[in-house]
Amino acid sequence: MATAVAVPVVIVLLVLIRVLGPGSSDDDAAADVSGATPTQRDESPVEVETPPITPEADAACPALMSQLPLELAGSTSRRVDSDSPYAHAWGDPAQVLICGADAPAGFVVGGPQLIQVNGVQWFVDTTDPTVNVWTAVDRTVPVEISVPASQDGSIPTLLSPVIAGAIPYAEPQPR
C-alpha cells in the first residue's frame, strides 16, 4: 500500500523538478506563469539593431514578449538597448530574439534550410561563421533568434511552443 502511494508522489515531484528546475522557488514559478513582462536580471545591456516597427508587429509581438521567461536553458535575461520594445536577450554571449524581424534573405518555401521544431517552421541561416540566425517563417510576423555559432539551438527549440502559442500561424511565404 505504501508503495502504491509513494510512486505517484515521486513521479509528481520529479515532474515538478523538471518543469521548475532545481532550486526554483515559489516566486520563480509565479513569475513564469504570471504573463507579466519579464524584467531582466543581468545589468549589462545588449545593443540590438531592430527593423522599424510595423502595425503587424504591434498587433502580434506584445503577446509573445509578455510570455518570455527570465531564465532559459541556464541563461538569464539581459537588458536590451534597441529602438523596439520587441527585442529580448539571454546569456553571455547573448542569444537575441527580435519579434517583427525582417524576412530572411534566401528563404525559399520547402528549402533545405527549413526545419520544423515544436510547431514552428524555422529558416536557419548559417552563412555567418560566428552566429546562426533562426527565423520563424510561419507566423504573422517573423521572429528571429540569433545564436552564437559556438552554442546549440536549445533556445529556439525551447521558445518554439511559446512562439506557436503567442503568434498566429501564417502560410510561409518569401517576402
> What would you report as the Rg, rounded to the nearest angstrom?
18 Å
Number of domains: 2
The biggest beta sheet, please?
9 strands, mixed
The count of DSSP E runs of length 2 or more, i.e. the number of strands, is 9
- Number of helical segments? 4
SS strand fraction: 25-35%
Averaged pLDDT: 81
Helix content: 25-40%
Uncertain ranges: 1-38
Terminus-to-terminus distance: 62 Å
Order of helices and strands: HHEHEEEEEEEEH
Specify the structural class. Answer: alpha+beta
Report the principal-axis shape. Answer: globular
Characteristics of this structure?
alpha+beta; 2 domains; disordered N terminus; 26% strand; DUF3515 domain-containing protein; single chain; DUF3515; globular; nine-stranded mixed sheet; 175 residues
Describe the structure.
The protein has about 180 residues and is α+β, with helices and mostly antiparallel strands. It folds into two domains: about 1-35, no CATH class; about 40-165. Helices cover about 30% and strands about 25% of the residues. Strands 1, 2, 3, 4, 5, 6, 7, 8 and 9 form a nine-stranded mixed sheet that branches. A hairpin with a 2-residue loop joins strand 2 and strand 3. Residues about 1-40 have low confidence and may be disordered. Pfam families: DUF3515. This is DUF3515 domain-containing protein.
Short description, anyone?
Residues 25-56 are annotated as: Disordered. The protein has 175 residues and is an alpha+beta fold.
Topology:
Blueprint lengths: L1 H19 L5 H8 L8 E6 L7 H11 L5 E2 L2 E7 L5 E4 L4 E5 L14 E4 L2 E6 L5 E6 L6 E6 L5 H13 L9
Parallel strand pairs: 1-3
Antiparallel strand pairs: 2-3, 3-4, 4-5, 5-9, 6-7, 7-8, 8-9
Helix pairs in contact: 3-4
Protein name: DUF3515 domain-containing protein
InterPro entries: DUF3515 (IPR021903)
Organism: Klenkia terrae
